[in-house]
Amino acid sequence: MYLLNGTMARLLRPARTESASPRRESAPSGNVDLARRAFLVGAVLGPLAGVSPAARGQAIVAAPSREIEFDLVYKNKRIGEYVVTRTKAANQVRVVTRINAKVEVAFFTAFEHRHDCEEVWDERGLVTFESETLERGVRLQAEGERIDDAFKIVGPSGPYLVPIGTLTTNSIWTPIITEHEELIDVQHGGVVGLVAKRLGQETVQAAGRATLAEKVRIITPFARGNAWYDGDGEWVGAALEERGNVIELRRV
Asked: Residue 231: in which H helix or E strand, if any?
């Protein structure tokens, strides 16, 4: 639930690195530096090391059409859902992410977050995205499109240009995300960084059955958590820690 930004969870909401910085178009300064990536690869993630941007795009397009759904669980109570739908068409794949979460305390809504995003990918990488987010009562919109040899992002954080092949903060569904040291923030329209480390295999519950999965530790300046991927590279679960709270994504 990494798009629950700054309230209870912020799984892939890192800071910017000093290296490989995006080109920013006429936007004010003041963003924090990207954290440098430091991770180990192996097992499920090992074959992804050193994969070129073009190969990453090809891998995303090759992923089968599928819908994966998670319950968002906080203190053993379901507070919402996280759904990723991949649909293949010709040489492209459409990825739709929907997040809905609400926490009620004494009949009052203490927290509500909604996020809807549609991405279109081809073998070169991300072609376009459009997103709308309700965050703390504020509605945010962001979009982006590939132009020539770069990808242009427009949103509340200002316009940016990033290299073709850069993944998005919604790309946690693929373990290829660990090959990136910066990601497109599809919620705010900026760029964020990622630190990840492989922790080995363990058995987790996913969709009602025990599943052997690779555990990856994800750390950002704002939050930290774990993501799990099975032997086929499918995302099967996550858990996020922030300010002493733990939010689980349980595969259904």
From this structure: none
The whole-angstrom separation of Cα 135 and Cα 113 is 5
With respect to residue 237, please indicate whether it lies within any of the assigned structural domains: yes
Query: Which H or E element spans position 53?
Result: helix 53-62
**For the chain, what is the largest distance between any 2 Cα atoms, rounded to a whole number of angstroms?**
53
**Model pLDDT for residues 98-132, shown as the tens digit of each residue:** 999 887 777 666 678 899 999 999 999 999 999 99
Range of the domain at 177: 16-251
Transcribe 81-130 into DSSP letters.
Answer: EEEEEEEEETTEEEEEEEEEEEEEETTEEEEEEEEEEEEEEETTEEEEEE
Please check whether residue 104 lies inside any domain of the structure: yes
pTM over 0.85: no
Residue 4: which pLDDT band, with cuts at 50, 70 and 90? very low
- Say which residue the tokens 């180990």 belong to: 40
Domain total in the chain: 1
Q: Give CA angle at 132 (128, 138), nearest 5°.
A: 145
User: Has residue 124 been placed in a domain?
Assistant: yes
